[in-house]
Amino acid sequence: MRTLGIAYLAAVFGVLLLPAPGSAQSGLSGTIAGVVSETLLATLGAALGLVPANAIWIVVVAATAGAFVESALAAVLEPRRILDNHLLNFINTAVAVAVALPIGPM
Q1: Could you give the CA distance from residue 20 to residue 16 in angstroms, rounded to a whole number?
Q2: How would you classify residue 84: left for phi > 0, otherwise alpha for psi between -120 and 50, otherwise beta?
Q3: S-S: 20 plus which of 24, 72, 78, 102, CB 3.0-4.6 Å?
Q4: Does residue 14 lie within any of the structural domains?
C-alpha cells in the first residue's frame, strides 16, 4: 500500500526529504496511503470488538509514528546493511507500542 507513489509519481522522496529509490516504501503518497489503511484496519478492529471505538485515533497515531521511524531508519541504515527488513519491522511495531501505551485507555 505504501508503494502507491512509485506507480504514479516521477520522483519519490522519503521522510528525510532525500530522493528515494524506485522501490522505497516512503513518500507523501505512501504516507497518505498508510494513514488511510491504518484507519481502515483500526475501524475494522473496532467493528470486530478488538479495539474500543474511541481508541481508533490512538491506533492510527501509533502506527503512523512507527512507520515514520521505520522509514527514517530504513533510509539511513538499510543501505549500509546495518539493519535488515525484519529488524525494521520489529522496530516499527515496538515504536507503535511505545506510542500507544502511554496514551491508550487502560
Answers
A1: 9
A2: beta
A3: 24
A4: no
